[in-house]
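Review form for a predicted model. The reviewer records the input and the model, then writes brief findings.
Reviewer: anonymous (R2)
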Amino acid sequence: MKKVGYHNSISRKLYLSLALMLTLSLTSFAQDAAPAATATPAATTAVAAPAVTQGGDPVKGKEIFNTNCAACHKLDAKATGPALRGVGAKYDKVWIYKWVQNSGDLIKSGDATAVKVFEANNKIPMTPFPQLSEADIDDIIAYTMEKKEAAPAVLPGAKPKGEETGISNDIILGALSLIMAILIVMLFIVNKSLRKVAAANGIDVSPKEPTLPIWKAFAKNQFLVLVTSIFLLLASAFFVYGYFMQVGVDQNYSPVQPIHFSHRIHAGSNGINCNYCHSAARVSKNSGIPSLNVCMNCHKNISEVSDTTATAEFSKADYDKEIAKLYKAVGWDAANQKYTGVTEPVKWVRIHNMQSFVYFNHSQHVTVAGVACQTCHGPVQTYEVQKQFAKMTMGWCIDCHRKTDVKMQDNNYYTKIHEQLSKKYGVDKLTVAQMGGLECGKCHY
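Model under review:
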């Protein structure tokens, strides 16, 4: 009987090669075959003309509204004052002039409408705007009378905006998977048929010759064993050293907070000074956690963010939910613009935590030394999630003291000692280290 090579190994190689080829082609084809978006008829929406324009310019009115009115009013939701959408159809134009320019006088005169509006809004007095002319008020009325833009109608069977149309990736992947399964079945059938043909012709398929396991081959090669052992020892020493060097160092620690606070929006986009929220940093040892009342100074009237605030990671809806959490914590009823008295504590997670044997005074650094917050806390105006920027190790503090000059301008506290030490060291400017900043008792006591 004839003997031939081991065909089963060839078949296995063919199977593996085919499977690998199909897997790669499956991934690349699914990525490259992005369905072309088909043009769909745009939803027809008719833009209605303002109901009452009062002869004003809505474009100018929007600008005036944002400058003078937006702090207390919204068009479609109640804030400190009522919603102003369609206000031109609710009240007489002459009455609106008097109300905007001086609502207090109108209420004192006993005007029934003015008194009703005043009482309906928790008797909160409206800021008078005598500087606004009747033409300006006409522009504001024209802006408030514009119809709210409706969401574009979605045609039956049409996909929401942002989704691609055409053949979906799921169909493509399903078809390719089916083809792959058919090819594998065909290979099994061909292999079985070839075995039958070989048996019918008296051809004997020689068994696969046993090979030496890879680990035994590796163990017999002394050079590879030596090199690998040295490499593992060095790698282990490197990782062990790195681990022990990080003990007590929480650099880049960024815990999830109960209410998401974006420094990128507040300190970055809105330019809020760090000391507005962390006011204690100027006068005390600790910077302190801002009270929620500080948040409500702005968010009493800011119940949602603008569309431009959203990012790929956080949508507008995500930010609005976080503001709702703030309202729930302080017990603020946004619909009725009043506090309910039902509050909940916010369990903030501490990020920066100095050791108990270390003394650090924020006021000494912020007020006396004039150190910028970013020096220790990093570019917080770019952080979406606050993290620990610096190592905050002893070596890091000492290095800063060695490099930083003492702020002498308008700082009489150090005048006398600066004059004495500058002569001693023969320099014009002294570093914190030369002023005693490296003495153990300065930070440890």
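Findings: Confidence is low (pLDDT under 50) at residues 1-9, 28-53.
Further findings: Residues 2-33+168-205 form one domain.
Recommendation: see findings above.
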